Amino acid sequence: MRRGSWRPLLPALAAGLAATAWLAPASSRAGDPELEWRTFETPHFRVNFPDYLERVARRIARKLEAAHRILVPLLDYEPAEVAEVVVTDDTDSANGSTQVLPSNVLRFYAMPPFDFSPLQEYDDWLDLLVTHEYTHLLHLDNIGGLASVVNAIFGKTWAPNHMSPYFVIEAYTTFQESRGRREAGRRAGRIGSTLWEMYLRTAALDGELLTLSEAIHVPRRFPHGEISYLYGGYFFDYVARRHGEAVFAEIADDYGSDLLPFGISRTFHEATGEDLLELWDGMTAELTERFAAQAEALRAAGLVEGTRVVTDAETVRAPRFSPDGRRLGFFASDGYDPPALQALDLETGERERLRIVPGQAALSWAPDGRSFVYHRAEVYRGFYGYYDLFAQGPDGEELRLTEGLRARDPDLDPGGDRIACVLSAHGGSFLATMNPDGSGTEIVLAGDEESQIFTPRWSPDGRTIA
Q1: Angle ∠(47,50,52) on CA atoms, nearest 5
Q2: Burial class of residue 35 in the structure, from the number of CB atoms within 10 Å of its CB (0-12 exposed, 13-18 middle, 19+ buried)
Q3: Sheet holding 83-88, edge to edge
Q4: Which helix (H) or strand (E) holds 295?
Q5: 240, 243, 234, 225: which is closest to 285 by C-alpha?
Q6: Are residues 80 and 146 in the same domain?
Q7: What are 395-435's pLDDT values in tens digits?
Q8: Are 110 and 426 in contact (CB under 8 A)?
Q9: Which of 38, 159, 334, 418 is the 20 to 30 Å CA partner of 168?
Q10: What residue spans of 142-245 are helical by DSSP H?
Q11: In this structure, are 338 and 193 located in the same domain?
Q12: What's the number of domains the chain is made of?
């Protein structure tokens, strides 16, 4: 594996200055004191997990070792230290994180993504998650040059690749998580997401693809925090098709050894013969041409378009007709005002804000057409961020139906006598029913580790659930 040119000097320098060495203590954070933690080791990872997540933790460990075998040769770098792995299930958000300072730590949440997500293209969610986070580690931990000398003396405190533009950091991971798209000719990862393709196609047809400067600084534009992943992934896909994937290992190695930060365009030029701006403009020109051809072909075939009834929101999700068909309830966010559950009168066009909610939410109308049940995120026991069910009556008062049950996607049966919903636990999901007051929960169908349950709906006669 490649290393910086300072590597041969490390033993002598470290020995000569060992007396002055220091290491800043790692930060710590308290968690649920009732959890019983366990640890096991594999050749390259030390895995820590609450005892009830052992099955998930062992699946992650197997996938990490498989990722190590695949990604280390691709990125031409192998970490010198065993990475700590922490597996938790304390949030209903599909995510993970990676740190390389002052040591290598990978964190994985057991919760899989919801259905309407750019993370929707996967066979096994954990494959995508593990590939994404371990690519981060191999990229950011590639440290050479003067930084490796400083780290040998003072402890691991400097990782030059951390100073890459954020879209470059996420480009590495989004590109690798979508590997199945390239190797098996199928949709995989976010580059394979039809939702993400729609984001870019809309921007291209409107002449609003981001410039390089805008992508570096992440403007307050849709899709906000996903901009670096979206544009970065497509950018690396473009670079790989022009210059081959090997350039990414070269870029990480060179930038990770640079004495001075922020010379990323120079690093790309040395690896590809083109500077960053040339490559970016080439990508946006290609996307513009590609999506224009798609639009022309679709128009020639004849477009079938609906009627837009909400035009001032960035995100509109989970629309539900009221029982009398006169109103449409939905979740909406414009990126500026707080997200909210809203109702639209289909005759007058008047909008009513039903309730401000933290993050995503979805409602189901009660038979009276004024009351409804809904899910939203809530803190549970001070340690967990879970979805729970709530109800709102005609007077606007909120009633909590569940607490810590991790329930979402509620649907009231036609008579208002039973709620169908999805429960989450340990990386899996369950179809459940309960009484309208949140009592009498009954699990009617359990998903397995590689399948998930979403958006249950009662049949009109209330006898079956789709």
Answers
A1: 115
A2: middle
A3: 37-41, 45-50, 83-88, 105-109, 96-99
A4: helix 276-301
A5: 234
A6: yes
A7: 999 999 999 999 999 999 999 999 999 999 888 889 999 99
A8: yes
A9: 334
A10: 145-154, 166-177, 179-183, 194-205, 212-217, 227-243
A11: no
A12: 2
Where are any strands of DSSP class E within 60-174? 83-88, 96-99, 105-109
Please give the Cα distance from 216 to 285 (Å, whole number): 18
Give the separation between CA 382 and CA 321, rounded to whole angstroms.
36
Preceding amide of 165 cis, omega within 30 = no
Res 143: pLDDT:
97
Q: What is the DSSP letter of 325?
A: S
333-363: per-residue pLDDT in tens?
Answer: 988 889 999 999 999 999 999 999 988 899 9
Q: How many CB atoms lie within 10 A of CB 437?
A: 10
Classify strands 96-99 and 105-109 as parallel, antiparallel or unpaired.
antiparallel
Q: Which domain holds residue 373?
A: 315-446
Residue at a domain's end among 237, 269, 297: 297
Strands ordered across the beta sheet of 407-412: 407-412, 419-425, 428-434, 442-446
CB 168 within 8 A of CB 234: no
Claim to verify: residue 363 and residue 400 sit in the same structural domain: yes
In a shared domain, residues 143 and 37: yes
pLDDT tens sequence across 206-225: 999 999 999 998 888 888 88
Count Cα neighbours of 164 within 13 Å in the Cβ-side half-sphere: 31
**Are residue 325 and residue 264 in the same domain, yes or no?**
no
> Two tokens at 399?
């009633």
Q: Identify whether 307 is part of a domain.
A: no
Residues 380 and 251 in one domain: no
Smallest CA-to-CA distance from 78 within 149, 147, 171, 143 is with 143
Tokens 């047809």 -> residue:
205
Same domain, 78 and 178: yes
Give the CATH number of the domain where residue 43 resides: 1.10.390.10
* Domain assignment of residue 119, yes or no: yes
| Cα distances (Å, whole numbers) of residue 106 to 138, 139, 196, 347, 426 | 11, 13, 26, 52, 18
| DSSP letters for 227-239 | HHHHHHHHHHHHH
Residue 105 or 94, more confident: 105
